[in-house]
Amino acid sequence: MEHYKYVILGAGPSGLSFAHTLRLLGEESFLVLDKENEAGGLCRSVEVDGKPLDIGGGHFLDLKRQEVLDLVFRFMPREEWQEHKRVSKIRIRGVELDHPLEGNLWQLPVADQIDFLESIAKAGVLRGEPQPEAFADWITWKLGDCIAREYMLPYNRKIWSMDPNQLGTYWLYKLPDVSFRETLQSCLEHKMFGALPAHASFLYPKAHGYGEVWRRMGDALGDKLHLGEALTSVDPATRTVNGRYQAGTIVNSIPWTAWTQTSPMPDEVRAAIGRLVQVPIDVDYVADTLPSDSHWTYDPDENKSFHRLLLRANFCSGSRGYWTETNSARSPKLAPGAFRHTNEYAYPVNTLDKPQTVDVIKKWAASQGIYPLGRWGQWEHMNSDVATSLAIAAAQELHGNPV
Protein backbone atom coordinates (compact mmCIF):
# COMPACT_ATOMS: atom_id res chain seq x y z
CA MET A 1 0.00 0.00 0.00
CA GLU A 2 1.24 3.48 -0.96
CA HIS A 3 0.15 6.39 1.23
CA TYR A 4 -0.39 9.96 0.03
CA LYS A 5 -2.02 13.07 1.39
CA TYR A 6 -3.81 13.49 -1.95
CA VAL A 7 -4.76 11.01 -4.64
CA ILE A 8 -6.01 12.99 -7.63
CA LEU A 9 -8.27 11.27 -10.15
CA GLY A 10 -7.92 12.76 -13.63
CA ALA A 11 -5.05 14.52 -15.41
CA GLY A 12 -7.04 17.18 -17.22
CA PRO A 13 -6.53 20.90 -16.55
CA SER A 14 -8.15 20.60 -13.11
CA GLY A 15 -6.11 17.68 -11.83
CA LEU A 16 -2.85 18.95 -13.30
CA SER A 17 -3.35 22.47 -11.93
CA PHE A 18 -4.25 21.12 -8.49
CA ALA A 19 -1.12 18.94 -8.44
CA HIS A 20 1.25 21.67 -9.56
CA THR A 21 -0.21 24.14 -7.07
CA LEU A 22 0.45 21.60 -4.30
CA ARG A 23 4.04 21.37 -5.52
CA LEU A 24 4.39 25.15 -5.49
CA LEU A 25 3.18 25.06 -1.89
CA GLY A 26 5.93 22.59 -1.03
CA GLU A 27 3.69 19.52 -0.92
CA GLU A 28 5.01 16.35 -2.59
CA SER A 29 2.74 13.73 -1.01
CA PHE A 30 0.33 13.36 -3.94
CA LEU A 31 -0.35 11.11 -6.92
CA VAL A 32 -2.33 11.73 -10.11
CA LEU A 33 -4.06 8.88 -11.96
CA ASP A 34 -5.55 8.97 -15.46
CA LYS A 35 -6.89 6.23 -17.71
CA GLU A 36 -5.53 7.85 -20.89
CA ASN A 37 -1.96 7.50 -22.11
CA GLU A 38 -1.43 11.26 -22.30
CA ALA A 39 -2.28 14.09 -19.91
CA GLY A 40 -4.71 16.85 -20.84
CA GLY A 41 -8.20 15.36 -20.68
CA LEU A 42 -10.56 17.22 -23.00
CA CYS A 43 -7.73 19.62 -23.89
CA ARG A 44 -5.52 17.03 -25.63
CA SER A 45 -4.32 17.56 -29.20
CA VAL A 46 -3.27 15.15 -31.95
CA GLU A 47 -1.70 15.70 -35.36
CA VAL A 48 -4.18 15.53 -38.24
CA ASP A 49 -3.30 16.47 -41.81
CA GLY A 50 0.13 17.66 -40.71
CA LYS A 51 -1.02 20.06 -37.97
CA PRO A 52 -2.52 19.90 -34.46
CA LEU A 53 -6.21 19.31 -33.91
CA ASP A 54 -7.81 19.64 -30.48
CA ILE A 55 -9.74 16.42 -30.02
CA GLY A 56 -11.91 17.77 -27.19
CA GLY A 57 -13.33 20.56 -29.37
CA GLY A 58 -12.50 24.24 -29.19
CA HIS A 59 -10.21 25.24 -26.31
CA PHE A 60 -8.37 28.53 -25.94
CA LEU A 61 -6.56 30.31 -23.13
CA ASP A 62 -8.46 33.34 -21.88
CA LEU A 63 -6.38 36.30 -20.72
CA LYS A 64 -8.52 37.39 -17.78
CA ARG A 65 -7.10 35.37 -14.88
CA GLN A 66 -3.53 36.25 -13.93
CA GLU A 67 -3.11 33.29 -11.56
CA VAL A 68 -3.89 30.97 -14.47
CA LEU A 69 -1.40 32.68 -16.77
CA ASP A 70 1.27 32.58 -14.05
CA LEU A 71 0.87 28.82 -13.72
CA VAL A 72 0.57 28.00 -17.42
CA PHE A 73 3.54 30.16 -18.43
CA ARG A 74 5.77 28.07 -16.14
CA PHE A 75 5.43 25.25 -18.68
CA MET A 76 4.83 27.12 -21.93
CA PRO A 77 6.30 30.64 -21.73
CA ARG A 78 4.36 33.63 -23.05
CA GLU A 79 6.56 33.90 -26.13
CA GLU A 80 5.27 30.52 -27.33
CA TRP A 81 1.70 31.83 -27.53
CA GLN A 82 -0.01 33.96 -30.18
CA GLU A 83 -2.63 36.45 -29.02
CA HIS A 84 -5.84 36.65 -31.05
CA LYS A 85 -8.73 39.10 -30.94
CA ARG A 86 -11.79 36.87 -30.94
CA VAL A 87 -13.68 36.58 -34.21
CA SER A 88 -16.72 34.35 -33.85
CA LYS A 89 -19.71 34.17 -36.15
CA ILE A 90 -23.32 33.02 -36.27
CA ARG A 91 -24.98 31.71 -39.41
CA ILE A 92 -28.53 32.99 -39.55
CA ARG A 93 -30.97 33.92 -42.33
CA GLY A 94 -28.36 33.08 -44.92
CA VAL A 95 -25.85 35.55 -43.43
CA GLU A 96 -22.71 34.97 -41.35
CA LEU A 97 -22.63 37.76 -38.80
CA ASP A 98 -20.48 38.48 -35.78
CA HIS A 99 -21.23 37.08 -32.33
CA PRO A 100 -22.98 38.09 -30.12
CA LEU A 101 -26.10 38.24 -32.24
CA GLU A 102 -27.85 41.05 -30.40
CA GLY A 103 -24.83 43.35 -30.77
CA ASN A 104 -24.38 42.74 -34.48
CA LEU A 105 -27.89 42.71 -35.96
CA TRP A 106 -26.82 45.72 -38.02
CA GLN A 107 -24.98 43.26 -40.30
CA LEU A 108 -28.35 41.89 -41.47
CA PRO A 109 -30.54 43.49 -44.14
CA VAL A 110 -32.68 46.32 -42.74
CA ALA A 111 -35.94 44.36 -42.93
CA ASP A 112 -34.38 41.56 -40.85
CA GLN A 113 -33.02 44.05 -38.33
CA ILE A 114 -36.54 45.39 -37.84
CA ASP A 115 -37.86 41.88 -37.21
CA PHE A 116 -35.33 41.28 -34.44
CA LEU A 117 -35.61 44.75 -32.92
CA GLU A 118 -39.38 44.52 -32.71
CA SER A 119 -39.07 41.07 -31.13
CA ILE A 120 -36.54 42.24 -28.51
CA ALA A 121 -38.72 45.25 -27.66
CA LYS A 122 -41.59 42.84 -26.92
CA ALA A 123 -39.51 40.47 -24.76
CA GLY A 124 -41.23 39.67 -21.50
CA VAL A 125 -38.27 40.73 -19.36
CA LEU A 126 -38.45 44.24 -20.82
CA ARG A 127 -42.22 44.39 -20.38
CA GLY A 128 -42.08 43.44 -16.71
CA GLU A 129 -43.71 40.02 -17.18
CA PRO A 130 -43.03 37.33 -14.55
CA GLN A 131 -40.09 35.03 -15.19
CA PRO A 132 -41.17 31.63 -16.61
CA GLU A 133 -39.86 28.35 -15.22
CA ALA A 134 -39.69 26.32 -18.47
CA PHE A 135 -36.44 26.70 -20.44
CA ALA A 136 -38.03 27.44 -23.84
CA ASP A 137 -40.42 29.99 -22.35
CA TRP A 138 -37.56 31.56 -20.36
CA ILE A 139 -35.43 32.01 -23.50
CA THR A 140 -38.29 33.76 -25.30
CA TRP A 141 -39.03 35.90 -22.22
CA LYS A 142 -35.36 36.90 -21.94
CA LEU A 143 -34.29 37.38 -25.56
CA GLY A 144 -37.45 37.85 -27.60
CA ASP A 145 -39.24 35.53 -30.01
CA CYS A 146 -36.90 35.94 -33.01
CA ILE A 147 -33.61 35.18 -31.23
CA ALA A 148 -35.28 32.31 -29.37
CA ARG A 149 -36.95 30.76 -32.42
CA GLU A 150 -34.13 31.22 -34.93
CA TYR A 151 -31.02 30.81 -32.79
CA MET A 152 -31.18 29.79 -29.14
CA LEU A 153 -33.83 27.07 -29.23
CA PRO A 154 -32.63 25.25 -32.37
CA TYR A 155 -29.02 25.55 -31.23
CA ASN A 156 -29.86 24.03 -27.84
CA ARG A 157 -31.86 21.25 -29.47
CA LYS A 158 -28.82 20.43 -31.59
CA ILE A 159 -26.16 20.51 -28.90
CA TRP A 160 -28.17 18.61 -26.25
CA SER A 161 -30.37 16.47 -28.54
CA MET A 162 -33.27 16.77 -26.13
CA ASP A 163 -36.39 18.82 -25.53
CA PRO A 164 -35.17 22.19 -24.20
CA ASN A 165 -37.82 22.05 -21.48
CA GLN A 166 -35.89 19.15 -19.92
CA LEU A 167 -33.23 21.75 -19.08
CA GLY A 168 -33.33 23.97 -16.03
CA THR A 169 -33.14 27.75 -16.06
CA TYR A 170 -30.86 28.13 -13.01
CA TRP A 171 -27.74 28.41 -15.20
CA LEU A 172 -29.06 31.01 -17.66
CA TYR A 173 -27.75 33.92 -15.63
CA LYS A 174 -24.68 33.39 -17.85
CA LEU A 175 -26.58 34.77 -20.83
CA PRO A 176 -26.04 38.49 -21.45
CA ASP A 177 -28.78 41.02 -20.78
CA VAL A 178 -30.21 42.10 -24.12
CA SER A 179 -30.66 45.86 -23.97
CA PHE A 180 -33.10 47.15 -26.57
CA ARG A 181 -31.43 50.54 -26.39
CA GLU A 182 -27.92 49.16 -27.04
CA THR A 183 -29.20 46.85 -29.78
CA LEU A 184 -30.96 49.74 -31.51
CA GLN A 185 -27.88 51.93 -31.15
CA SER A 186 -25.69 49.24 -32.75
CA CYS A 187 -28.09 49.05 -35.70
CA LEU A 188 -28.07 52.83 -36.13
CA GLU A 189 -24.31 53.28 -35.75
CA HIS A 190 -23.20 50.00 -37.37
CA LYS A 191 -20.99 48.87 -34.51
CA MET A 192 -21.42 46.67 -31.47
CA PHE A 193 -22.53 48.02 -28.10
CA GLY A 194 -22.86 46.05 -24.89
CA ALA A 195 -20.74 43.44 -23.12
CA LEU A 196 -18.17 41.41 -25.01
CA PRO A 197 -18.39 37.60 -24.70
CA ALA A 198 -15.80 35.40 -23.01
CA HIS A 199 -12.46 35.02 -24.79
CA ALA A 200 -12.66 38.54 -26.27
CA SER A 201 -8.88 38.07 -26.49
CA PHE A 202 -7.28 34.67 -26.21
CA LEU A 203 -3.98 32.84 -26.57
CA TYR A 204 -3.25 29.82 -28.74
CA PRO A 205 0.16 28.15 -29.11
CA LYS A 206 2.22 29.34 -32.07
CA ALA A 207 3.68 25.95 -32.96
CA HIS A 208 1.45 23.41 -31.21
CA GLY A 209 -2.12 22.52 -30.39
CA TYR A 210 -3.71 23.60 -27.11
CA GLY A 211 -2.94 20.18 -25.65
CA GLU A 212 0.82 20.84 -25.63
CA VAL A 213 0.86 22.88 -22.44
CA TRP A 214 -1.11 20.22 -20.54
CA ARG A 215 1.13 17.47 -21.91
CA ARG A 216 4.15 19.38 -20.60
CA MET A 217 2.46 19.82 -17.22
CA GLY A 218 1.90 16.09 -17.11
CA ASP A 219 5.50 15.31 -18.06
CA ALA A 220 6.75 17.68 -15.36
CA LEU A 221 5.03 15.59 -12.69
CA GLY A 222 7.32 12.64 -13.44
CA ASP A 223 6.46 9.59 -11.35
CA LYS A 224 3.73 11.58 -9.57
CA LEU A 225 1.55 10.93 -12.64
CA HIS A 226 0.40 7.44 -13.56
CA LEU A 227 -1.04 7.36 -17.07
CA GLY A 228 -2.95 4.41 -18.50
CA GLU A 229 -4.39 3.61 -15.07
CA ALA A 230 -8.17 3.59 -15.05
CA LEU A 231 -10.23 3.65 -11.87
CA THR A 232 -10.94 0.04 -10.92
CA SER A 233 -11.90 0.34 -7.25
CA VAL A 234 -12.47 2.92 -4.54
CA ASP A 235 -13.03 2.14 -0.88
CA PRO A 236 -14.46 5.40 0.54
CA ALA A 237 -14.19 4.16 4.13
CA THR A 238 -10.40 3.89 3.92
CA ARG A 239 -9.97 6.21 0.91
CA THR A 240 -8.11 3.47 -0.94
CA VAL A 241 -7.94 3.67 -4.74
CA ASN A 242 -7.34 0.64 -6.97
CA GLY A 243 -6.47 -1.42 -3.91
CA ARG A 244 -3.05 0.19 -3.78
CA TYR A 245 -3.12 3.93 -3.10
CA GLN A 246 -4.40 5.23 0.23
CA ALA A 247 -5.20 8.93 0.49
CA GLY A 248 -5.83 11.46 3.18
CA THR A 249 -8.07 13.17 0.61
CA ILE A 250 -9.28 11.85 -2.73
CA VAL A 251 -9.61 14.66 -5.27
CA ASN A 252 -12.09 13.65 -7.97
CA SER A 253 -12.05 15.36 -11.35
CA ILE A 254 -13.37 12.41 -13.39
CA PRO A 255 -17.06 11.69 -14.12
CA TRP A 256 -18.93 10.37 -11.11
CA THR A 257 -20.45 7.70 -13.34
CA ALA A 258 -17.03 5.98 -13.30
CA TRP A 259 -17.53 5.42 -9.57
CA THR A 260 -20.78 3.45 -9.65
CA GLN A 261 -19.15 0.19 -10.79
CA THR A 262 -16.07 0.61 -8.60
CA SER A 263 -17.17 1.91 -5.21
CA PRO A 264 -19.63 1.03 -2.45
CA MET A 265 -21.97 3.93 -1.74
CA PRO A 266 -25.45 4.58 -0.33
CA ASP A 267 -28.34 3.78 -2.65
CA GLU A 268 -29.43 7.42 -2.77
CA VAL A 269 -25.97 8.49 -3.96
CA ARG A 270 -25.87 5.75 -6.57
CA ALA A 271 -29.32 6.83 -7.76
CA ALA A 272 -28.21 10.47 -7.88
CA ILE A 273 -25.20 9.60 -10.04
CA GLY A 274 -27.55 7.65 -12.30
CA ARG A 275 -29.58 10.84 -12.87
CA LEU A 276 -26.58 12.82 -14.12
CA VAL A 277 -26.65 13.45 -17.86
CA GLN A 278 -23.75 14.19 -20.18
CA VAL A 279 -23.50 14.83 -23.91
CA PRO A 280 -21.04 12.93 -26.11
CA ILE A 281 -19.52 15.03 -28.90
CA ASP A 282 -17.89 13.95 -32.16
CA VAL A 283 -15.05 16.09 -33.51
CA ASP A 284 -14.73 15.64 -37.29
CA TYR A 285 -11.94 17.10 -39.43
CA VAL A 286 -12.62 18.63 -42.86
CA ALA A 287 -9.62 19.54 -45.05
CA ASP A 288 -11.33 22.40 -46.89
CA THR A 289 -10.32 25.90 -45.81
CA LEU A 290 -13.40 28.11 -45.57
CA PRO A 291 -13.41 31.73 -46.85
CA SER A 292 -14.01 33.27 -43.43
CA ASP A 293 -11.90 35.08 -40.83
CA SER A 294 -13.86 33.46 -37.99
CA HIS A 295 -12.10 31.45 -35.30
CA TRP A 296 -15.32 29.56 -34.63
CA THR A 297 -18.83 29.71 -36.03
CA TYR A 298 -22.18 28.72 -34.51
CA ASP A 299 -24.79 27.18 -36.80
CA PRO A 300 -28.34 26.70 -35.45
CA ASP A 301 -29.68 25.21 -38.73
CA GLU A 302 -31.23 21.91 -37.65
CA ASN A 303 -30.82 20.52 -41.16
CA LYS A 304 -27.08 20.37 -40.46
CA SER A 305 -25.77 17.83 -37.98
CA PHE A 306 -23.02 19.94 -36.39
CA HIS A 307 -23.61 22.92 -34.11
CA ARG A 308 -20.17 24.59 -34.26
CA LEU A 309 -17.21 24.83 -36.62
CA LEU A 310 -13.64 25.55 -35.50
CA LEU A 311 -11.72 27.15 -38.36
CA ARG A 312 -8.27 25.82 -37.54
CA ALA A 313 -6.55 27.73 -40.33
CA ASN A 314 -7.43 31.01 -38.59
CA PHE A 315 -5.75 30.30 -35.24
CA CYS A 316 -3.32 27.40 -35.79
CA SER A 317 -0.35 28.73 -37.74
CA GLY A 318 0.37 27.07 -41.10
CA SER A 319 -2.64 24.76 -40.96
CA ARG A 320 -5.62 24.31 -43.24
CA GLY A 321 -9.18 23.09 -42.86
CA TYR A 322 -11.58 23.08 -39.93
CA TRP A 323 -13.29 20.71 -37.57
CA THR A 324 -16.90 20.41 -36.53
CA GLU A 325 -18.50 19.61 -33.19
CA THR A 326 -21.61 17.42 -33.30
CA ASN A 327 -23.71 15.70 -30.68
CA SER A 328 -22.90 12.02 -31.29
CA ALA A 329 -26.60 11.20 -31.56
CA ARG A 330 -26.78 13.47 -34.63
CA SER A 331 -23.51 12.52 -36.31
CA PRO A 332 -23.67 11.25 -39.89
CA LYS A 333 -21.88 8.08 -40.94
CA LEU A 334 -18.15 8.69 -41.12
CA ALA A 335 -16.72 8.77 -44.63
CA PRO A 336 -13.88 6.31 -45.41
CA GLY A 337 -10.54 7.73 -44.34
CA ALA A 338 -12.06 10.70 -42.49
CA PHE A 339 -10.91 11.66 -38.99
CA ARG A 340 -13.31 11.57 -36.06
CA HIS A 341 -12.68 11.64 -32.34
CA THR A 342 -15.60 10.81 -30.06
CA ASN A 343 -15.65 12.36 -26.58
CA GLU A 344 -18.00 10.20 -24.53
CA TYR A 345 -17.94 12.89 -21.84
CA ALA A 346 -17.92 16.35 -23.39
CA TYR A 347 -20.61 18.52 -21.79
CA PRO A 348 -22.46 18.03 -18.49
CA VAL A 349 -26.15 18.76 -19.03
CA ASN A 350 -28.05 21.24 -16.86
CA THR A 351 -31.14 19.10 -16.35
CA LEU A 352 -34.03 20.33 -14.22
CA ASP A 353 -32.97 18.44 -11.09
CA LYS A 354 -29.18 18.74 -11.48
CA PRO A 355 -28.57 21.14 -8.55
CA GLN A 356 -30.35 18.84 -6.09
CA THR A 357 -28.73 15.75 -7.62
CA VAL A 358 -25.19 17.13 -7.42
CA ASP A 359 -25.83 18.34 -3.87
CA VAL A 360 -26.58 14.74 -2.77
CA ILE A 361 -23.29 13.56 -4.31
CA LYS A 362 -21.24 16.41 -2.85
CA LYS A 363 -22.60 15.90 0.68
CA TRP A 364 -21.73 12.21 0.57
CA ALA A 365 -18.29 12.96 -0.89
CA ALA A 366 -17.53 15.51 1.84
CA SER A 367 -18.43 12.95 4.51
CA GLN A 368 -15.92 10.51 2.99
CA GLY A 369 -12.97 12.87 2.54
CA ILE A 370 -13.55 13.15 -1.21
CA TYR A 371 -13.19 16.57 -2.88
CA PRO A 372 -15.08 17.22 -6.17
CA LEU A 373 -13.05 19.23 -8.67
CA GLY A 374 -13.48 20.61 -12.17
CA ARG A 375 -16.02 20.06 -14.91
CA TRP A 376 -16.86 16.49 -13.91
CA GLY A 377 -16.36 16.65 -10.17
CA GLN A 378 -18.69 19.65 -10.02
CA TRP A 379 -20.72 18.46 -13.05
CA GLU A 380 -20.57 22.02 -14.34
CA HIS A 381 -19.53 23.30 -17.76
CA MET A 382 -16.43 25.44 -17.34
CA ASN A 383 -13.71 26.62 -19.68
CA SER A 384 -10.15 25.47 -19.01
CA ASP A 385 -9.11 28.80 -17.51
CA VAL A 386 -11.99 28.65 -15.03
CA ALA A 387 -11.18 25.02 -14.18
CA THR A 388 -7.54 25.94 -13.63
CA SER A 389 -8.38 28.92 -11.45
CA LEU A 390 -10.73 26.87 -9.28
CA ALA A 391 -8.15 24.08 -8.97
CA ILE A 392 -5.48 26.55 -7.83
CA ALA A 393 -7.85 27.92 -5.18
CA ALA A 394 -8.86 24.41 -4.07
CA ALA A 395 -5.27 23.30 -3.58
CA GLN A 396 -4.52 26.45 -1.57
CA GLU A 397 -7.63 25.92 0.54
CA LEU A 398 -7.11 22.22 1.23
CA HIS A 399 -3.41 22.59 1.90
CA GLY A 400 -4.14 25.47 4.25
CA ASN A 401 -1.35 27.65 2.97
CA PRO A 402 -2.60 30.15 0.38
CA VAL A 403 -0.04 31.95 -1.76
Key structural traits:
single chain; 403 residues; alpha/beta; FAD/NAD(P)-binding domain; 2 domains; seven-stranded mixed sheet; 11 helices; 30% helix; 22% strand
How are the elements arranged and paired?
Blueprint: E1 2-9, H1 13-24, E2 30-33, E3 45-48, E4 51-54, E5 61-62, H2 66-72, E6 81-85, E7 88-92, E8 95-98, H3 110-121, H4 135-143, H5 145-160, H6 180-189, E9 201-205, H7 211-220, E10 225-226, E11 234-235, E12 240-241, E13 245-252, H8 267-275, E14 278-286, E15 296-298, E16 308-310, E17 322-327, E18 340-348, H9 354-367, E19 370-372, H10 374-377, H11 384-399
Parallel strand pairs: 1-2, 1-13, 2-10, 7-15, 13-19
Antiparallel strand pairs: 3-4, 5-9, 6-9, 7-8, 11-12, 12-13, 14-17, 14-18, 15-16, 16-17
Helix pairs in contact: 1-11, 3-6, 4-5, 8-9
What does this structure look like?
The mean pLDDT is 95. A hairpin with a 4-residue loop joins β11 (234-235) and β12 (240-241). The chain has helices spanning 13-24, 66-72, 110-121, 135-143, 145-160, 180-189, 211-220, 267-275, 354-367, 374-377, 384-399; strands at residues 2-9, 30-33, 45-48, 51-54, 61-62, 81-85, 88-92, 95-98, 201-205, 225-226, 234-235, 240-241, 245-252, 278-286, 296-298, 308-310, 322-327, 340-348, 370-372. It has 403 residues and is an alpha/beta fold. It has 11 helices and 19 strands. It folds into 2 domains: 2-87 and 203-399, FAD/NAD(P)-binding domain, CATH 3.50.50.60; 100-189, no CATH class. It is globular. α3 packs antiparallel against α6 (180-189). The longest helix has 16 residues, at 145-160. Strands 1, 2, 10, 11, 12, 13 and 19 form a 7-stranded mixed beta sheet that branches. A 7-stranded mixed beta sheet has the order 8-7-15-16-17-14-18. A 3-stranded antiparallel beta sheet has the order 5-9-6, with no helix packed on it.
